[in-house]
Input
Amino acid sequence: MQYVCSDIHGQYDLYKQLMEIIKPEDTLYVIGDMIDRGPSSIPILQDMMKRDNVIPFLGNHELMMLDYLDQTGMPESWFYGGNGGQMTYKEFQALDPEAREEIVTYLRESWVQKYVEVDGIPYALSHSFFLPDHTGEDLRYSQVDSWDDAFMAVWYSPYRLWEHVDPELYDDGYIHIVGHIPVQTKGMEKPPFYSPAVGESLITIDGGCNLIARGRYGGLYCMSLGEERREFWFSPYDKA
Output
């Protein structure tokens, strides 16, 4: 089966629980924000790198990390306020140079947008937005035309006051699955959240792992693609 999750944000224990369910013959798309805010970001990346069936996507936090390491874009933003880059950077710096370079290469080759069809259902996967001029094209970060395009894809959202986009843009014949915005900010306890404007054309699956570090309710959500919907939810607040 094919699955998608997002916004793990350094919650390695929750990631490990999910990976107990994902079989070697399955595919898991992780649509960005694997790092920051939680306690163990680098181990998540290192585990993902070992698995051919786990497909990484660029999120705004990975873009901030690469910006800082490359001194491009907005390099200072990784350490702003609650973005959480300090903890990830400390983990990263503890690695040997070869291991650091492997992670940087892995992130540079992660997907910005990818289109998949399961059971005849067309999906568009990205962290938050996509590149309308490249609708239907699979693009890695290394393939986008500019940093501005990458920024737009991982930051823009119908649910942000800044970097705002019209939700009608998602009504293009695909089912868009995105993360970036915790569903708790939309008054929900758990994903999925369907767009009030375009319904199932835009599904948000960020379960709020970033909230856990702040002592608030959140967790890691994963859903299958296709006609048979399977859903999994992992949260430290829901332990028996």
The longest helix spans residues 97-108. The helical segments are 12-19, 41-49, 60-70, 85-93, 97-108, 147-155, 209-212. The mean pLDDT is 97.
